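Re: [ENG-882] Designed sequences occasionally contain unexpected residues at chain ends

Forwarding the minimal case from QA. Structure tokens:
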């Protein structure tokens, strides 16, 4: 069995997943990196190598549960253990319930909910044998805040939070902690994929509108979410399980944009 702890991260080619993998490597973990066949993992693996950590790459589509199960089997065959699972990968289409196709709906739920559920099950089988482990589901504040433009994604993220509570209850007596991280607006490729026409001007307007709702007045960088994930997997969070951790710069508790606050109290809320 490997003497170093092992973390498995889905959607590991970049964004939150890539930064999380590098952060785990810096903390002494070896990493299993799950990504799509066309993804470029080299920038992430180069940074992992610089830490002295080892990595195992498993390429495939999480809509295929045989691939997901194979990744767990490869990890156990290679290292004999898995200490942390981070269900980070996601897929979505910007559309409304009026127009979403069944194939899009089913793919979203498959990647964002079904794959995390069964990866958790298969990893937990090995974690239970050692009476310890951590499963972290990367959800979204959209699990509780809808916009009307991503029905399958919102439904999947709401269910992922509920699944977190269910798995924490099931696996807690075996020493396994299960948590959900709910990021807000993150400066990633997916975070920028917010306009159906992908016109730069439209995307910029949407970003400005979201920043107008965030008390910290900016989107987060992926490494800011990664630091939270790795902390939650550590013994510093040893009594945290069955809950969601919101990392959104204060957005979810906001009730009005700062442009409106400026109109109400201009001296206290200067116009940016």
């Amino acid at each position: 069995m490997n003497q170093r702890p092992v973390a498995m991260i889905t959607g590991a080619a970049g964004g939150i997943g890539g930064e999380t993998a590098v952060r785990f490597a810096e903390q002494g973990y070896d990493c299993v990196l799950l990504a799509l066949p066309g993804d470029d993992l080299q920038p992430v693996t180069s940074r992992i190598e610089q830490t002295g950590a080892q990595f195992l790459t498993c390429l495939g589509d999480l809509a295929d549960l045989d691939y997901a199960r194979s990744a767990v089997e490869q990890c156990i065959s290679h290292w004999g253990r898995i200490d942390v699972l981070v269900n980070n990968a996601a897929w979505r289409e910007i559309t409304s319930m009026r127009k979403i196709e069944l194939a899009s709906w089913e793919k979203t739920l498959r990647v964002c909910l079904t794959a995390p559920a069964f990866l958790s099950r298969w990893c937990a089988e090995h974690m239970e044998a050692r009476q310890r482990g951590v499963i972290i589901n990367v959800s979204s504040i959209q699990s509780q805040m809808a916009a009307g433009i991503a029905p399958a994604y919102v439904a999947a993220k709401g269910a992922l939070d509920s699944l977190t509570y269910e798995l924490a209850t099931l696996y807690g007596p075996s020493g396994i902690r299960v948590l959900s991280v709910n990021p807000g607006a993150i400066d990633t490729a997916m975070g920028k994929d917010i306009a159906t026409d992908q016109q730069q001007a439209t995307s910029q307007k949407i970003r400005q509108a979201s920043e107008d709702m965030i008390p910290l007045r900016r989107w987060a960088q992926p490494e800011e979410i990664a630091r939270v994930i790795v902390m939650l997997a550590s013994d510093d969070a040893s009594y945290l399980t069955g809950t969601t951790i919101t990392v959104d710069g204060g957005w979810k508790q906001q009730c009005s944009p700062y442009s409106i606050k400026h109109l109400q109290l201009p001296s206290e809320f200067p116009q940016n």
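QA comment: On inspection the terminal residues look reasonable. The chain has a mean pLDDT of 95. Proposing we downgrade this to a documentation issue.
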